[in-house]
Design goal:
Structural class: mainly alpha
Order of helices and strands: HHH
Distance between the termini: 110 Å
Number of strands: 0
Shape: rod-shaped
Largest sheet: none
Radius of gyration: 33 Å
Number of helices: 3
Strand content: under 5%
């Protein structure tokens, strides 16, 4: 085999390898593109939510209620009890002075 034939064979092998790499890269790019579409949608929702903070607060409250209703109720009960205790203590301190 002459030097020219060796180089031609090596070039053909390299061209075939680069074609395989291009296809693999295109496949990976498709997967990344699919993932980035999800991220883009999430960013879009976050931007909309930032313009409507009340809607965001409602959504957060809804998620909390759906995820942990018992815990939320316990926290609200504790918070309400603490608020009532603070109000009573404040009223007692005001009347005693």
């Amino acid at each position: 085999m002459s030097r020219r034939q060796e180089l031609a064979a090596k070039r053909a092998m390299l061209v075939a390898r680069s074609e395989l790499q291009r296809r693999a890269l295109a496949s990976s790019a498709g997967e990344v593109s699919y993932s980035l579409r999800k991220v883009d949608a999430a960013v879009s929702v976050a931007r909309r939510a930032a313009t409507h903070p009340l809607l965001l607060a409602g959504a957060v409250a809804a998620v909390v209620v759906v995820i942990r209703p018992r815990r939320l109720l316990q926290g609200l009960t504790l918070g309400l009890s603490a608020a009532v205790a603070v109000q009573r203590a404040s009223a007692l301190l005001r009347t005693s002075t």
